Amino acid sequence: MSTGPSVRNILISAAIFVAMEIAALAILSKSSSLANIWINRASHRTMAAVWGSFENVRNIFSLSKQNEALLEQNIRLTDELQKYKDAEKISLEASSSAEVRGSSFRYIPATIVKFSTNTAHNHIILNKGSEDGVKPDCGIISADGVVGVVEAVGRHYSYGLTLMNTNISIGGRIKGKDYLAPVVWDGRTTNGAFVKDMPLHHVVAPGDTVVTSGFSTIFPPDVPIGIAGESTMVDGSVFNIKVTLFQDFSSLKYVSIVENLDKDEIQALEAEKEDGDEN
């Protein structure tokens, strides 16, 4: 009599156990699916991040190459523009001269390797040297204006003094008025300079453009320097004029080295004349 309920209880327990096993397997199956989905999603995110990083690195190198290509294109266009200016000058002067020859400049694109802005004698190191045709006393310019002058040259690198250097003086003039005066750094800021020793009878208004004079063997004429500001009288005889430089030295990376192809002939002639005067 007592065995009936016992068997029934066993059967009920077995049925409950089987049901629980089925439920557990179902839950485990679902849990595995969710885990697989989560793992797949996580792996996809990781792969996307890794590939994104590789793509960013590739884009950085690509942009660097594009910048260098644009720089070289800009240099070629600058060179061609200078040739057109020389040709125009020759054409205008040909009517009053039997033979006229324009000065010739060559432009060498360069990238800045090292650059100082926090001393009184700031310098610049460029990735072009004598094997690229760079010589001492070549000018350094950018798309914005005057940067400095090459002082020393190695095989693959060159060392220059920037306009942010108290030892540098650039021959400048007021555009449209042909007033000549040296331009020097103000010694304090990255975009400030002075036109020094401007005669009192020359009227320079704020907003006038300051450019290179062209009366040297370093820079071509009319390379932008900056915008004239306030004038201050010095010793009652000359003006010093504040200049806001076009070149922003805080963000400089690419430049052009300018070589005057007539420089050696001009300097040899000057040296010959000086020797003749001494004798």
Top keywords for this entry?
alpha+beta, six-stranded antiparallel barrel, six-stranded antiparallel beta barrel, 31% strand, 2 helices, 279 residues
Structure commentary:
The chain has 279 residues and is α+β, with helices and mostly antiparallel strands. It is 38% helix and 31% strand. The chain contains 2 helices and 12 strands, in the order H-E-E-E-E-E-E-E-E-E-E-E-E-H. A 6-stranded antiparallel β-barrel has the order 1-2-5-4-3-12. It has a 6-stranded antiparallel beta barrel with strand order 6-7-8-11-10-9. Strand 10 and strand 11 form a beta hairpin. It is elongated.
Concise account of the structure shown:
This protein is of the alpha+beta class.
